[in-house]
């Protein structure tokens, strides 16, 4: 990830997302523009950050690692999102890795210059609290589904969520992390949904053949096949 000089693009993003509305003054503090590529690390677990980031283009995943080295993907974010407010805003180390899954841009606020202003801005803190409540709700749902729901159910729900025009092209390694399963088990579950007739494999992508069936599997009303032991 690198800082770029493009005042017009910076202003365009600020206008597009009405960033000035997040602050009591009604004006944007001095911001910087960063560009990143897929795979770039925006925040590193265990490390402090000099900036508070606002994701305005592209996508990132938030993930952590178990003591055995397994990856646990906590969430997937697309624009517009604040990144790092749970830790770096309060001068704490990041509690997870934030890694780009698509190229994009971030607006950045220098915490050295603006931390106290942000912590004393009621409008901004209200926005942060609202976003934190939404993120915690999402995390709790993901965690409960991971524990209690079979993989096929969670996979069906993810396909419905990510499909565009009835087609989804999963990045299998990322989906395996997100669903807390192995790459091979994910492939077996996709094959099971294909065999059941809920989806159809077309090269590297999958087409939703029977949305109603996929919805029933996602809700737990139907299952493609009994769970396969990992």
Automatic annotation (TrEMBL):
InterPro entries attached to this UniProt entry: cNMP-bd_dom, cNMP-bd_dom_sf, HTH_CRP, RmlC-like_jellyroll, WH_DNA-bd_sf
Domain Cyclic nucleotide-binding: residue ranges: 31-118
Keyword entries, A-Z: DNA-binding, Transcription, Transcription regulation
Domain of life, source organism: Bacteria
Protein name as catalogued: Cyclic nucleotide-binding domain-containing protein
Protein's organism: Anoxynatronum sibiricum
Taxonomic lineage from the root: Bacteria, Bacillati, Bacillota, Clostridia, Eubacteriales
